[in-house]
Please model this.
Amino acid sequence: MFRVELGKAARRWRTWALALVLGAIPALFVLALVLSPPASGDDGPPFMVQTLRNGLFAPLVALVLLQPFFLPLTAGLLSGDAIAGESSAGTLRYLLVRPVGRTRLILAKYASVMALLGLLLAWVLVVGLVVGTIAFDLRPLATLSGTTVGVGPALARIAGSAAYVLAGVAGLAAVGLFISTLTESGPGATVATVAFAIVSQILGALSSLEVLHPYLLNTHWLAFVELLRSPVAAAPMLRGLAVFAAYTVVFLGAACLVLGRRDVHS
Model:
C-alpha cells in the first residue's frame, strides 16, 4: 500500500509543482546574492558575507527559509488531502472494502506523506548545493562558534539539519492527517492544518503565553542551528525531538481512532 500511495503521488501534477516551487527557493536566493552582493566583502551582514564566500550555506539558508511557512504549507497540502481527498473523490470506501485495516491505511498514508516530504527536502538540499557550488564554490564551513569544519563534516551537519527539519514537520503532518479524518474536504483540511501552524507561531510570539512555548512545535523548529556550533549543543534538539514525537504519536493515534469509528459512505 505504501508503494501504491507513492505511485499515486508521483502521477499528480501537484507533487511536481511543489518540487519546482521548493527547488526555486535556494536558486532564487543564490541568484539574488550574485546579482546584488554587499558593496564590499566585509560591509554586508555577516551571515550574507559567509554565504557569498561558501556554497555550503545555500542549502542551510534554504532550510531556514522553508521551515516557517513553505514546509508547513507543503505538509498541510499532502497530509490534509490524504484521507479527505479520498473521501471527496468517493474512493475511500473502496480502499476500505479491500482487506486493509483502517489503522494500516492511516500508517501507509502517513508514511507516504513523510517520504514525499523527505524527498522534497533532499531535492531542495541538492539544488542548494549545486547552485551554491557553481556560484561560490565549496570551502570549510564557518560555525556560529567562530570555528570552521571541513567540507565533509559540514555536509554531514547539513544532512543532520535536514533530518531534524523533517522530524519537526512530522508532528504537523500527523496533525494534518488527523484533521483529514474529520472532514471530506481536502482543501478544508489543508487550510486547517496550515492555520494550526500559523496559530502556533502567533502563540509562540506572545510573551504572555510563555508557559505554552515549550509545548509548541514551532518553538523547536529552528533548533537545528545548534548543529552549526562547535561543539554541537544537543540539548535543544533533543527537547525538540521529544515534542515532535509526542505530537506524532498523539495525533496519529487520534486519526486511527476517528477513522476506526467513522461510518464511511464515500
Notes: The chain has one domain: 2-34+44-261. The first strand starts at residue 141 and ends at 142. The radius of gyration is 20 Å. Strands lie at 141-142, 148-149.
